[in-house]
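[[Per-residue structure]]
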Amino acid sequence: MDNSFVFVIFGSTGDLTRNKLIPAFYHLIQNPDFSATFKIIAIGRRDYCTDEYLSEIYGTIVNKISMFNDDIWKCLSGKIEYLKMDLTDQLDYKLLEESLAVCHENIGVQNTIYYFATAPEFFPLMSQNLVHYGLNKLETGYQRIVIEKPFGYDLSTATYYNRTLNDAFSEESIFRIDHFLGKEMIQNIFYLRFTNIVFEKVWNHNCIKSVQIIVDEEFGIENRGSYYDKSGALRDMVQNHLLQMLALVGMDSPDSFNDKNMVEQKLKVLEKIRLSDDIVLGQYSGYSDIKDITLGSNTETFVALKCFIDNDKWKTTPFFLRTGKKLDSKTTEIIIEFKDNEGYLPLDNIQNNVLVIKVQPEEGLYFRFNAKKPGVMNRIQTNALDYCQTCNIDYRSPEAYEKLLDEVIKGDQTLFSSWRELQISWHIIDQIADKKASLTVHQYNEGSTGPAASDLMMKRNNTMWMKDVFI
């Protein structure tokens, strides 16, 4: 059967597997459109048998999934096999080869998806070990690989990792996950823009005053101190999530909604990004007290910056990006502020039109417009159209990983990052990193909106951060 496959998870005892991957499969098997026959090989170093592994992750799965159903779990858990092996030991890959042979015989095809849920420094060795046993190119079927961020530390390391992956797998077989691209309202940017003429005809520097892309987080770095202290907000968030969102907002209409056309249009945006001198870095108070953080660390947990897209469509419109941890709320929004309504009706109190794409926690759209205030006088009042997608009592927003895993299984790379996109985004991050020595890392209080320098940056640009201002 062509829609059958074996899903191999390297790093199956980690948080990603229990919090994202297994719950995604739990939801997928309930979807009537998902009819694939599959097996999951969960690889880890811990000395578990399959029953012990399933028992160990069960509690997390139950807490993660609302309205948990034991019958569905029984169906899914029956497809999971735990395999104890050391992913750094080439000899252990013989165990994987043998396990795959049995699974392939049971499902009738050699379709295989390898998910690298590990630190990126293991990618080269894991790829080489798969090549050694010929597991990257089996006799029949497809062999695909899925990799997580961070894909490297800078352009140099990312290039090295990419070269080692390309030695084992073709570009068409490599799926680089950015889970933001699997979120419903991020996907909706495309449909909002290109299926509504009312927006697309004014989607340019002539009509749009500024764009704000905000990804605020309430939580801190939790137990990721060792990783985060080497990464920081620039590499952890801006390099992938925020620049991908910027590309989707700024791109021209592709000829069709497929991976090649989407990548082509996003690249045209990323290649034209020009940084300004407006860059603010911050670190929340108490960061240096966290386990595994280097004493006196200058790692940023907050970034705010202004940039431009140097093309005819966007040449004078500033794009403001902001992300940070331990802020006052968990909010992801894209805010489109339209230009002043000068030269039309000479009335007071006319406000700029504003479109807000609400990504999380609430999914929806908000549009601010002007209209006559009821009454005998000619007065203006501000009104809003507010569409709340998550307010529908019967609505369950698919988890990002649910959507993305389904696309991997189908072999569709539209919602994944290409190497060329990563290459350009790392070049942008390297430019900022080169300036970091001359930048102050401002302290800010937990539960605040970030360092005051971020608000001052916006004030210098005759604007303000608009998160929640109109909603």
Remarks:
- The mean pLDDT is 93.
- The longest strand covers residues 273-284.
- The domain at 5-148 is CATH 3.40.50.720 (Rossmann fold).
